[in-house]
Design goal:
There is one protein chain. Helices cover about 40% and strands about 20% of the residues. By secondary structure, the protein is of the alpha/beta class. The longest helix is centred in the middle third of the chain and has 16 residues. The termini are far apart. The model has no long low-confidence stretch (mean pLDDT about 95). Bound molecules: adenosine monophosphate (AMP).
Length: about 290
């Protein structure tokens, strides 16, 4: 059944009031639309766990530091609604930017520490935008549970930190990254890749896997990363923003994976910025 598309907060509150009264769990899947199987895996996880499920679609202007990126971000609402039909969710919450951030809106939720590195360092203001909108989405939807992808691992940690720090009554669930058959992590921005760039894009994951395997074999991070960067450039990537090994709990930079660690990368291919991360060693004995 096609879920109702709600655009007014009053309508959303009318929907959730009986759910809250009945003590039902409300699972929320925040997205920016242009839905793909990665998003749909979060919806499936929410459906499996919660009595009610609300999918939000909001291209949040506050989390874009680059106006062209915001302008070019793919928007496919009709198609998104069609893809969600088989999940029988309770609502699509599609607020308008002018109502989300009316004139005189003056509040920012800002998470320190975790946001100093990687996406936070390369996209000033990005995580303030994320934390602010996620706080609003949680309260608007009366979420008891929320589902986020490990694809945006730093975001997942930031949302967890913020939820704990602010005592938001929401359980944050992290879900594994869904990849295309050639290894490329699914992402809405992949739609912006030309056919030629799309054939080259999986090199990012391939090189990350190669580095992770090298580290598992005791290889030196700097040597492995230097070779990886060079191979990415050969594959057509014009800029590698970062290729970092970091602790999976606190994102502290590591030289060797002597504790649970992930490899993180952001790189540009034909004008499209791709990010990815993979676990290096889930099972390190501490
Ligand atoms: P976005 O629409 O890109 O803001 O993503 C919305 C949610 O979907 C975030 O929690 C993302 O981490 C998650 N997500 C995006 N791509 C994937 C993927 N390939 N696999 C799993 N989750 C994803």
């Amino acid at each position: 059944m096609t879920a109702p598309i709600l655009r007014n907060l009053g309508d959303l509150r009318d929907l959730t009031r009986p759910f809250i009264r009945a003590g039902e769990t409300i699972g929320v899947v925040p997205t920016m639309g242009a839905l793909h199987d990665g998003h749909l895996s979060l919806v499936a996880a929410a459906k499996a766990r919660c009595d009610r499920v609300i999918v939000t679609i909001f291209v949040n202007p506050k989390q874009f530091n680059n106006p062209d990126d915001l302008k070019n971000y793919p928007r496919t609402e009709v198609e998104d609604a069609r893809k969600l039909a088989r999940f029988d969710v309770d609502a699509l919450w599609v607020p308008e930017a002018e109502r989300m951030y009316p004139p005189h809106f003056a509040t920012t939720v800002s998470v320190a520490g975790l946001t100093d590195v990687m996406e936070g360092a390369h996209r000033p203001g990005h995580f303030d935008g994320v934390a602010t909108v996620v706080t609003k989405l949680f309260t608007q939807t009366a979420a008891t549970d929320a589902f986020f992808g490990e694809k945006d691992y730093q975001q997942l940690l930031v949302v967890r930190r913020m939820t704990r720090d602010l005592d938001l009554p929401v359980t944050v669930h992290g879900c594994p990254t869904i990849r295309d058959i050639d290894g490329l992590a699914l992402a809405s921005r992949n739609l912006l890749l030309s056919d030629r760039a799309r054939t080259r894009a999986p090199a990012l994951f391939t090189e990350m896997e190669r580095i992770a395997e090298g580290l598992r074999q005791g290889g030196d991070l700097e040597t492995l990363a230097t070779r990886g960067r060079a191979r990415l450039e050969t594959a057509g990537f014009t800029w590698v923003d970062y290729l970092d090994l970091r602790g999976q709990e606190n994102l502290a930079r590591l030289d060797t994976p002597d504790r649970p660690a992930r490899l993180f990368a952001a790189a540009r291919l034909a004008g499209v910025r791709l990010i990815d991360n993979i676990a290096v060693n889930d099972q390190v004995a501490l």
